[in-house]
Automatic annotation (TrEMBL), chain A:
Organism annotation: Marinomonas rhizomae
Database matches in InterPro entries: CcmF_C (IPR032523), Cyt_c_assembly (IPR002541), Cyt_c_biogenesis (IPR003567), Cyt_c_biogenesis_CcmF (IPR003568)
UniProt similarity note: Belongs to the CcmF/CycK/Ccl1/NrfE/CcsA family.
Locations listed in the record: Cell inner membrane
Major location (coarse): membrane
Domain Cytochrome c-type biogenesis protein CcmF C-terminal: 316-637
Domain of life: Bacteria
The protein's name in its UniProt record: Cytochrome c-type biogenesis protein CcmF
Any one cellular-component term (Gene Ontology): plasma membrane
From TrEMBL, chain B:
Domain of life: Bacteria
PANTHER family assigned to the protein according to its UniProt record, in alphabetical order: CYTOCHROME C-TYPE BIOGENESIS PROTEIN CCME HOMOLOG, MITOCHONDRIAL
Family: Belongs to the CcmE/CycJ family.
Cytoplasmic side: 1-8
Protein name: Cytochrome c-type biogenesis protein CcmE
Example of a GO MF term: metal ion binding
Keyword Zinc: no
Organism listed in the record: Marinomonas rhizomae
Lineage: Bacteria, Pseudomonadati, Pseudomonadota, Gammaproteobacteria, Oceanospirillales
Extracellular side: 30-155
Record-linked HAMAP family: CcmE (MF_01959)
Location (main, coarse): membrane
Task performed by this protein: Heme chaperone required for the biogenesis of c-type cytochromes. Transiently binds heme delivered by CcmC and transfers the heme to apo-cytochromes in a process facilitated by CcmF and CcmH.
Binding of heme, residues: 124, 128
Length: 645, 155
């Protein structure tokens, strides 16, 4: 009974989404206030209905209702209760429902904040979000309903959740990532509504900025969580694989980063107007493209759901309609926009333009590497894969260049900066950074790229702090009152830029300073890696809630003193007849000890991976800093003013 | 030249410069890092280049996995039910590596016809079959009918 109500409320919400897509737009067209005002209640009802069906599906999971096909496929009565709940988004149908839920959540958030927008703009924004909702709701209903029943032959037990997904990572990673992905549809809605209403001035950029910053922060956190999860869960200690689906989340992040910066220029200086609109459309399209790549099965990846061509075609059509439609609108409207403001070659506009060019280039290199196998195959040239070396060799130099300029932008002033002033600050920082990085690289015997990257890291830190110091020491007030007066926006930027540096340092050190060994060991064996002695103490058999585990025990010694006891496991899940590796970690600020077991080779010997990973935590620490920076920027007081004030 | 035009020219030149540098970098990196997939039949017919990074894969032949008793070296055969290729690997095999299961290996084909793998991939889903292998099996199946039954029975 309940699943039918869930299905029914989804159908109803599709109707409300349809009316949301049409009614306010007609109202805008006819200048009918009543129709415009319908946007808010329509949004709330649509969202409530989606929430209802989400709650019903979670109840089906929690009560082990295996008459629901999706529950039977992805859950099991033995599953711990928190995984029963998160199993909801462990497969295609449920994760799409989560996607729609989050989309309606963003819609409601915009509806709640509608007072901050001019009377005619808010409903149009909601209307565009309604169009997006119609797309995803019909995708959910027509190709992948999670409420399909298995009647009358109800299975006794479910097929179980994929053991890889029975982890804390599944509980947090998808919802946060989707918050980011879907959040960009708000920026998209603002851009399209600006095109519809013709209000392509700086104000749309101001309204869109906090929303973009918030979704960017979520996407950053989502990617960070995904990287951390892959690191400990996949059992081989990698933190980024350039897997097509990772790229699918990384491309909107790159484009979204460009969007954040160009929105700032458009808001403050009224330049790059049409480019910013295009970038908002582009960022959202990349989110959709990501959904297409993950859910259509066209690419080989750890993430891909069971392939179903009709789903792929549906998203492709959705992509074409939404992107094609908005680009058409852009082509009609954007010609009317002409920037009248000019800027100097050393003004902040120019640096941010450079930022946008480089980020766009980065997005395209990732896009090319991701789609190249598809193109190659479609042309009948054979099956290929583009390996991580492609991405590393293209991405590294461009990203380093980007970071070099990242530090200069904030130093410069809008419109025009005296070149001599810039040169003076920069040359001191460049000299200091090179010396410091040179010393580190010399003593630790790092290669050229690592040394260069460290120099870039020092450079950004120097320049960021000298900029901050200059800002707080100007004027007659003391340093602390001045520091408190600087806007949150500025601190958000500072934090995000420094987060970038922390991540860079982590990446450099983990790749040049780590020790990784794969060994054949039996209980009682000892081995020394990077100054740590690892002793393989024993093996034991342990029974978990829905698995049996071979659990090893390793003790790590540093200079004769035990520093960590590690318990890597090999778990066997009987429902799916699947083996899972659970790596054991001893996390630290400057190093991680990582032990994971391969296979049993004979009576006592196992293949074992032992890694000492240098500064690996910094990669995610930097991600957290970037996220915090994004949130800080989103919460800047300036954005909370009401319209017209 | 008019100062505004001059500025615009500078912007366009910068963009063009960065773009061409990026395109060059991309072309170069792509040339170095494309890994073509070859089925065991293609390898047997000598279509696969030697000592170049490629990928090869198929179903792991039952009973073919041989391990070294002191190190992590392992050798096994993969097949598309027409021909076999021996793959050598030193390291830890993925959890889903099993006899009778589809795998893809990355590495080089040595002069003696043995494939030396630097990486062995199996999917994180036991129902999954890498598309390359599915296709290789299908084309092998089409070429003769006798093996068709044995192919079906493995699914």
């Amino acid at each position: 009974m309940f699943p039918e109500i869930g299905q029914f409320s989804l159908i109803l919400s599709l109707f409300f989404a349809l009316s949301l897509a049409l009614v306010p737009l007609i109202g805008y067209w006819k200048s009918n206030k009543l129709l415009l005002e319908a946007a808010r209640p329509l949004t709330f009802i649509m969202s409530a209905l989606v929430l209802l069906s989400f709650v019903i599906l979670s109840l089906s999971f929690l009560s082990d209702d295996f008459s629901v096909l999706y529950v039977a496929q992805n859950s099991n009565s033995q599953l711990p209760i928190w995984y029963k709940f998160s199993a909801l988004w462990g497969g295609h149908e449920g994760s799409l429902l989560l996607w729609v839920l989050i989309l309606s959540g963003w819609c409601s958030a915009v509806a709640l904040k509608i007072k901050t927008l001019p009377e005619a703009v808010g409903p149009v924004v909601l209307s565009v979000l309604g169009v997006v909702s119609v797309g995803f709701l019909s995708f959910l209903l027509f190709t992948s309903s999670p409420f399909a029943r298995l009647l009358p032959d109800v299975p006794l037990d479910g097929g179980d959740l994929n053991p890889l997904l029975q982890d804390f990572g599944l509980i947090v990673h998808p919802p946060v990532l989707y918050m980011g992905y879907v959040g960009f549809s708000v920026a998209f809605a603002f851009a399209v509504s600006a095109l519809i209403t013709g209000n392509l001035n700086a104000s749309w950029a101001r309204w869109a900025r906090p929303w973009t910053a918030a979704s960017w922060a979520f996407l950053t956190l989502g990617i960070t969580l995904g990287s951390w999860w892959a690191y400990y869960e996949l059992g081989w200690g990698g933190w980024w694989f350039w897997d097509p689906v990772e790229n699918a989340s990384f491309m909107p992040w790159l484009a979204g980063t460009a969007l954040l910066h160009s929105l700032a220029v458009t808001e403050k200086r009224g330049v790059f107007k049409s480019w910013t609109v295009l970038l908002a459309i582009f960022t959202f399209s990349l989110s959709l493209l990501g959904a297409f790549l993950v859910r259509s099965g066209v690419l080989t990846s750890v993430h891909s759901f069971a392939a179903d061509p009709t789903r792929g075609i549906f998203i492709l059509i959705l992509l074409l309609v939404l992107v094609g439609g908005s680009l058409l609108l852009y082509a009609i409207r954007a010609v009317e926009v002409r920037s009248t403001v000019s800027f100097g070659v050393t003004g902040r506009e120019a640096w941010l333009l450079l930022n946008n060019i480089l980020l766009t280039v980065l997005t395209f290199t990732v896009l090319l590497g991701t789609l190249y196998p598809l193109v190659f195959d479609a042309l009948g040239l054979g099956k290929i894969s583009v390996g991580a070396p492609y991405f590393n060799s293209v991405f590294t130099p461009i990203a380093l260049l980007l970071m070099v300029f990242m530090a200069v932008g904030p130093l410069s002033k809008w419109h025009h900066t005296k070149f001599s002033v810039l040169f003076k600050v920069c040359s001191v920082a460049a000299l200091g950074a090179t010396l410091l990085a040179g010393l580190v690289a010399y003593f630790y015997e790092f290669g050229f790229i690592a040394g260069l990257s460290l120099a870039v890291a020092f450079w950004v830190v120097f320049l960021s702090f000298s900029d901050w110091f200059e800002k707080v020491s100007a004027g007659t007030k003391g340093i602390i009152p001045r520091a408190r007066q600087l806007p949150r926006n500025y601190y958000g930027m500072l934090l995000a830029h420094l987060g970038m540096v922390v991540t860079l340092v982590g990446i450099v050190l983990v790749s040049v300073n780590s020790d990784e060994s794969m060994l054949r060991l039996s209980p009682g064996d000892k081995v020394t890696i990077a100054g740590y002695e690892f002793r393989f103490d024993q093996m034991e058999q342990v029974k978990g809630p829905n698995y049996v585990s071979s659990k090893g025990q390793f003790t790590a010694y540093k200079a004769g003193k035990a520093v960590a006891v590690l318990h890597p496991e090999k778990r066997f899940f009987s429902t799916r007849q699947q083996v899972m590796t659970e790596a054991a970690l001893d996390a630290g600020f400057t190093r991680d000890l990582y032990v994971s077991m391969g296979e049993r080779l004979d009576d006592s010997a196992w293949s074992i991976r032992i890694y000492v990973k240098s500064f690996v935590r910094w990669i995610w620490l930097g991600g957290l800093m970037m996220m915090a920076g994004g949130l800080l920027a989103a919460l800047d007081k300036r954005y909370r003013k009401r319209a017209g004030v | 030249m008019h100062p505004v035009r001059k500025k615009r020219l500078l912007v366009i030149l910068t963009i063009a410069l960065i773009l061409s540098a990026a395109v060059g970098l991309v072309m170069y990196a792509l040339q170095q890092n494309i890994n073509l997939f070859f089925s065991p039949s293609q390898v047997a017919m000598g279509e696969a280049p030697r000592n170049v990074n490629i990928r090869a894969g198929g179903m792991v032949v039952k009973g073919s996995v041989k391990r070294n008793s002191d190190t992590l070296a392992v050798a096994f055969d993969v097949t598309d039910f027409q021909h076999k290729v021996t793959i050598e690997y030193r390291g830890i095999l993925p959890d889903l590596f099993r006899e009778g299961q589809g795998i893809v290996a990355q590495g080089k084909l040595k002069d003696d016809g043995v494939f030396e793998a630097t990486e062995v991939l199996a999917k994180h889903d036991e129902k999954y079959m890498p598309p390359e292998i599915a296709e290789a099996l299908k084309s092998a199946q089409n070429s003769t009918d006798e093996s068709a039954e044995s192919v079906q029975s493995t699914y």
